[in-house]
Design goal:
The chain is α+β, with helices and mostly antiparallel strands. 46% of the residues lie in helices and 9% in strands. It has 15 helices and seven strands. The chain has a five-stranded antiparallel beta sheet with strand order 2-1-7-6-5, sandwiched between helices. A hairpin with a 3-residue loop joins strand 6 and strand 7. Helix 3 packs antiparallel against helix 15, helix 4 crosses helix 5 and helix 8 runs parallel beside helix 11. Bound molecules: glutamine (GLN). The site of glutamine has 11 residues, from loops.
């Protein structure tokens, strides 16, 4: 990972930083040890989270999703930011304990369970791993591309994932999906928002079309309505920004949840999952995002985004107002700011 000189900037800044650290230690304030590891200090992490929140707090661009009616009613001003490190330290700012609908941020984590159960080859064969370059709810992608379901992180592939979960009936399928996502979040049970589920399920004609199309092409592996219903429940689970950070930190930590110590994905499958997040986590803006932040990430129309810094930490943010592609405006700006400040781009080998 990155060396300390890179993160701290110029030698002059390093010198000033050392003087400040020395002074605060002498004054009996929090002792910050010399930077002998590549992990930024607690003070630096809290500061960058606070700064990211302060910098974009007043930004009003974008608007709440409204094709799922209930999402239009979520207060647009909410804004939370969190960093969770691989050793389980948590740094938050703003509304980081507000529970919002996880929506598509759930997709890579459910995929982790399918990979764990059936291996990455089953995912490649039965769903596909190419980015569509099209919006997340595209039916055209299913018609155009030979693998039909195409990618696990768009709606078609995510509904296909749910249909792949080994279960004797719908109750067991749902229990496995909810149990796994809760384990990633480090809680006993993530709550299902019945209101969100009802609002989304009753208006899910597009996803119903997707499920039926896939079934028609032999690319859905359970009853289509059952897969669609469980997928919609999955999207209607409530999560806080801080919990989302822990979900991401389970991936940065090689598949082991830093809080519970539970292994949820074998270490050798983590790169496969992260590669999908890098190439398709932002839907048809994935290229832009990779070009800018250089971090495997996943967004959701509830306003949540999580980014993974392999071997180090996860950054999560939540803000309901979205851009045209369905990605949260303030959440992506906050994460990008943090990634820049801490020089976290995974392609930056300096
Ligand atoms: N549940 C939403 C849907 O199926 C999730 C989409 C998203 O978050 N991008 O449309």
């Amino acid at each position: 990972m990155k060396g300390q000189s890179k993160r701290l900037g110029s030698p002059m800044i390093t010198l000033i930083g050392a003087l400040i650290i020395g002074f605060t230690s002498l004054a009996g304030c929090e002792t910050v040890s010399a930077r002998d590891t590549s992990i930024p200090t607690a003070v630096e992490l809290q500061r960058v989270v606070d700064d990211a929140h302060a910098k974009f707090k007043d930004l009003k661009d974008g608007k709440n999703a409204d094709y799922i009616p209930i999402l239009a009613t979520i207060p647009s001003e909410l804004f939370g930011v969190a960093i969770v490190t691989n050793d389980g330290r948590v740094y938050t700012a703003g509304d980081s304990d507000y529970a919002f609908a996880i929506e598509s941020v759930s997709k890579p984590f459910n995929l982790a369970m399918v990979m764990q159960e059936q291996g990455p080859e089953a995912v490649r064969e039965k769903i596909g791993v190419e980015p569509t370059g099209l919006p997340f709810n595209s039916k055209l992608a299913i018609e155009l591309l030979k693998t039909r379901s195409v990618n696990p992180l768009v709606n078609a592939g995510a509904i296909a994932q749910v249909s792949m979960v080994k279960a004797k009936d719908e109750d067991e399928r749902w229990a496995k999906v909810q149990g796994n996502l809760s384990a990633f979040a480090g809680v006993k049970e993530l709550p299902l928002s019945d209101e969100t589920f009802k609002s989304e399920y009753e208006s899910a004609w597009s996803n119903r079309a997707i499920a039926n199309l896939l079934y028609n092409y032999g690319r859905l592996y359970s009853d289509p309505e059952e897969a669609m219903r469980v997928y919609t429940k999955q999207c209607s689970l409530l999560i806080t920004t801080e919990e989302l950070g822990l979900m991401g930190a389970t991936l940065s930590n090689g598949g082991v949840n830093p809080k519970t110590g539970k292994r949820l994905l074998n270490e050798e499958h983590v790169p496969e999952l992260l590669s999908l997040m890098l190439t398709a986590g932002f839907y048809d803006e994935s290229g832009q995002w990779s070009y800018t932040a250089g971090l495997p990430s996943k967004t959701g129309v509830g306003g949540g985004i999580v980014s993974v810094v392999p071997g180090e930490m996860a950054i999560a943010a939540f803000s309901p107002r979205l851009n045209e592609a369905g990605n949260s405006v303030r959440a992506q700006k906050a994460i990008n700011y943090i990634a820049e400040q801490l020089q976290l781009n995974i392609f930056d080998g300096r």
